[in-house]
């Protein structure tokens, strides 16, 4: 099965992640679109790892998953603090430094 | 790979799936009976005794009750999540049993040789842990979608507890993995073959390099916490928070949660016996001098048949007929198991089931003996005691391995 | 129509449907559930690409821990429904069609590339080969990521603390 099928799927998922990132207004949903983009990239890495017969692609996916975990933890902590201070999760209400 | 080969593989797998599904659902139902009887005898009473001889038809009565009860849905509940949460729990709990090997020999179904496991995948252990990880969502979503404060609190507490103890669960198994070098469950069992000093089995609990006693106790405690059983069941105990995440569930959906809990108990007990107690390996060395140990399954069946016949004669109701008939059936089964053709196939599953029953008995014993943990004690124990102990086990096992080579 | 292609199409359909659902749902919790199904479908695709360890890690870590974190935050913050937005006319009539066109173009270019699979997978099994690489060639990034996780844990704890003293100590008195 040609690898281009997997890459096309990865591109579609990435594009959908970008659309979600640009057009949604709830912070947590935006964050989830970022995770969708990361997943699409993971798929591309694994597809290339299989196509070229190497395992470095899988190592990189491993690191991407780990870094995504760390990023999700810190990012969601920031989201919690923002929600506590602004009482809203709508990014159109938290785009000013002044409360 | 031609068409008929894949087709026969599919058909064989389908047969195994149907048989195992039937067995697991029956086992879950009778595990409830077993727990109620053991709990009762521990507390000095009889337990279910009237519905059928010795309460053996109690699970049927419970099943009928669950099906016939009124099925309510709380107002404002998120319908999609409300309906899928118990389905997630039950499905994942039962699917995890697909990876468990019940015996060594290949049986011949319609002429095709196939091992006694549905999915002998190379990362079988990781697959079971993956299913346990997703099972957390059943609990969290049930708590959220019920639109009730007790459910939400109970659901959040239960799922936080499950993900905390999942860490210690997977870490306590790493010692076994280091000794075996593979994730494949059948391989793990085969690595425990052999007897030190000729008679002590080389199960991972008594491993010659480093006995995994610390790992076993870590695993067992983490497993009890993972399946939300006492003494870690604060999030679903009646005296604490009504019923936690399954407060607002009734009839069949509650039955699905109930069955899911007991099915995950069975999965965890099966894993414990595979990883630490040698799976389907017999505790006796398979030398020619010990050939009599191969007749133990038949002997056990015969003894229980005789016990049933004698007990049946004590009753006066129709149990006077049913129990001796069951006893005679067991006697016939025991005769069948001692025939040379069948005896090889019976060994593995018998020892495996004996070990699983032992682990389940300890599970129930612990539930009805120890008092409950408070929630902050529970989380503190999981993170501050159990996790470092599991890490210590990994370090000790690696040191022992390095020194052994 | 090999079995592989059939499985790929099913899993790809589930992944794309889930991703579209992430964007289109109004409740954030439904978006989270859709994202979890996308991740599980992707794990299936990883299995198809013979990397079973990464598939298991994806489910255990990504879908089973990171998304649980998301779900907890959504439940604790009671993130409400998305309000109906009035996108600016520019965004609605130029932006969205351009975005979809970019998507189709990207998929087309990538989909007609000519790189084919090697005949057999990497020499060692996925788990063994991966761990050899991780602990020999990539041991420095591996240790760095463990420090990174530690920093992330500490950072999250410090950030999310309430400013009027640790509530946990008050509960223990």
Overview in brief:
Chain A has 99 residues and is mainly α.
Task: Describe the protein.
- The complex is a heterotrimer of chains A (99), B (405) and C (173).
- By secondary structure, chain A is mainly α.
- Chain A has helices at residues 4-23, 27-52, 56-86.
- Chain A has a single domain, classed as Helix Hairpins.
- Chain A starts with a helix and ends in a 13-residue tail after the last helix.
- By secondary structure, chain B is mostly helical.
- Helices cover 66% and strands 2% of the residues of chain B.
- Chain B contains 13 helices and four strands.
- In chain B, the strands form two sheets. In chain B, strands 1-2 form a two-stranded antiparallel sheet.
- In chain B, a hairpin with a 3-residue loop joins strand 3 (195-196) and strand 4 (200-201).
- Chain B is globular, with a radius of gyration of 22 Å.
- With 173 residues, chain C is mainly alpha-helical.
- Chain C has helices at residues 3-24, 28-48, 52-77, 89-111, 126-137, 139-160, 167-172.
- In chain C, helix 1 (3-24) runs antiparallel to helix 2 and helix 2 runs antiparallel to helix 3.
- Chain C starts with a helix and ends with a helix.
- Chains A and C meet through helix 1, helix 2 and helix 3 of A and helix 1, helix 2, helix 3, helix 4 and helix 5 of C.
């Amino acid at each position: 099965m040609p690898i281009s099928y997997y890459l096309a799927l990865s591109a579609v998922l990435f594009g959908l992640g970008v659309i979600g990132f640009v057009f949604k207004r709830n912070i947590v949903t935006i964050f989830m679109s970022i995770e969708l983009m990361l997943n699409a990239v993971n798929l591309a890495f694994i597809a290339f790892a299989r196509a070229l017969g190497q395992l470095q692609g899988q190592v990189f996916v491993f690191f991407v998953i780990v870094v995504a975990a760390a990023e999700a933890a810190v990012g969601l902590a920031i989201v919690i603090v923002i929600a506590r201070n602004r009482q809203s999760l709508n990014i159109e209400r938290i785009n000013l430094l002044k409360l | 790979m031609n068409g008929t080969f894949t087709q026969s593989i599919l058909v064989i797998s389908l047969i195994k799936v149907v048989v195992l599904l039937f067995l697991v659902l029956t086992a879950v139902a009778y595990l409830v009976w077993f727990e109620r009887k053991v709990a009762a005898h521990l507390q000095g009473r009889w337990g279910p005794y009237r519905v059928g001889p010795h309460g053996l038809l109690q699970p049927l009565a419970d099943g009928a009750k669950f099906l016939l009860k009124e099925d309510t849905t709380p107002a404002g509940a998120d319908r999609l999540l409300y309906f899928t949460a118990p389905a997630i729990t039950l499905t994942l709990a039962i699917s995890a049993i697909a990876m468990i090997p019940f015996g060594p020999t290949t049986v011949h179904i319609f002429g095709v040789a196939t091992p006694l496991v549905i999915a002998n995948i190379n990362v079988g252990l990781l697959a079971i842990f993956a299913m346990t990880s997703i099972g957390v969502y059943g609990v969290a979503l049930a708590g959220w979608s019920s639109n009730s404060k007790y459910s939400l609190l109970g659901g959040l507490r239960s799922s936080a507890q499950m993900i905390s103890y999942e860490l210690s669960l997977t870490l306590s198994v790493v010692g076994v993995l280091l000794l075996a070098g593979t994730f494949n469950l059948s391989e793990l069992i085969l690595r425990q073959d052999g007897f030190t000093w000729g008679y002590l089995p080389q199960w991972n609990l008594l491993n010659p390099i480093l006995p995994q006693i610390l790992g076993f106790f870590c695993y067992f405690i983490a497993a009890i916490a993972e399946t939300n059983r006492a003494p870690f069941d604060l999030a679903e105990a009646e005296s604490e928070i009504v019923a936690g995440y399954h407060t607002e569930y009734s009839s069949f959906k509650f039955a699905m949660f109930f069955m899911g809990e007991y099915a995950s108990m069975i999965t965890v007990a099966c894993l414990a016996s595979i990883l630490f107690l040698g799976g389907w390996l017999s505790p006796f060395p398979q030398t020619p001098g010990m050939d009599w140990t191969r007749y133990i399954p038949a002997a056990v069946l015969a003894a229980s048949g005789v016990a049933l016949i004698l007990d049946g004669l004590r009753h006066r109701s129709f149990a006077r007929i049913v129990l001796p008939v069951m006893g005679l059936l067991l006697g016939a089964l025991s005769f069948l198991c001692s025939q040379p053709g069948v005896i090889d196939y019976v060994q593995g599953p018998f020892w495996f089931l004996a070990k699983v029953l032992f682990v389940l008995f300890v599970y129930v014993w612990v539930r009805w003996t120890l008092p409950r943990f408070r929630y902050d004690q529970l989380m503190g124990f999981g993170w501050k005691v159990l996790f470092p102990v599991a890490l210590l086990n990994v370090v000790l096992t690696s040191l022992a391995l390095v020194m052994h080579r | 129509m090999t079995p592989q292609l059939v499985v790929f199409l099913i899993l790809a359909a589930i992944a794309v449907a889930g991703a579209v659902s992430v964007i289109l749902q109004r409740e954030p919790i439904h978006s989270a559930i859709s994202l979890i199904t996308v991740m599980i479908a992707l794990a299936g695709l990883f299995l198809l690409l013979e990397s079973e360890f990464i598939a298991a890690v994806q489910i255990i870590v990504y879908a089973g821990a990171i998304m649980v974190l998301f779900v907890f935050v959504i439940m604790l913050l009671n993130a409400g429904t998305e309000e109906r937005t009035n996108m600016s006319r520019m965004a609605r009539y130029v932006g969205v069609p351009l975005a979809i066109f970019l998507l189709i173009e990207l998929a087309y270019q990538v989909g007609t590339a000519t790189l084919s699979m090697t005949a057999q997978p990497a020499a060692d099994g996925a788990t063994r080969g991966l761990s050899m690489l991780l602990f020999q060639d990539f041991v420095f990034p591996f240790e760095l990521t463990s420090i990174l996780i530690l920093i992330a844990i500490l950072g999250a704890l410090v950030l999310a603390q309430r400013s009027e003293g640790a509530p946990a100590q008050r509960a223990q008195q």
